[in-house]
Amino acid sequence: MLTAVDHVQLAAPPGSEDRLRAYYTGVLGMTETPKPPALAARGGCWFEAGDVRLHLGIERDFRPARKAHPGLRVTGIETYAARLAAHGAPVTWDGLLPGHRRFYSEDPVGNRLEFLEPVRS
């Protein structure tokens, strides 16, 4: 029986770790977590915030995920969108999901990210 999502993995190009760290920690406010030594040799970075875990793995023939994406729930979505925009990240609002405010953005290597907050009735 499935009980939870442990993490979501996104791909990134070789040598992008510093840009990923700056974005996921500095812009999104996540914390980098150390990878086990056997996996650290492959490159990439792991991040978490509360129960949210994102793994960025290095892929030699990298192509950013333009459709597939993690949906990240936030609080204070207006403030969060302004934070991303202030750091130069794109913010594209989408009002098509009933009961939610949401926008799309992308990380510094072009992976699509969705940010959403339930609307209280």
Automatic annotation (TrEMBL):
SUPFAM superfamilies linked: Glyoxalase/Bleomycin resistance protein/Dihydroxybiphenyl dioxygenase
Domain VOC per the UniProt entry, residue ranges: 4-118
Coiled coil: none
Cited InterPro entries: Glyas_Bleomycin-R_OHBP_Dase (IPR029068), Glyoxalase_6 (IPR041581), VOC_core (IPR037523)
Domain of life: Bacteria
Name of protein: VOC family protein
Organism: Streptomyces cellulosae
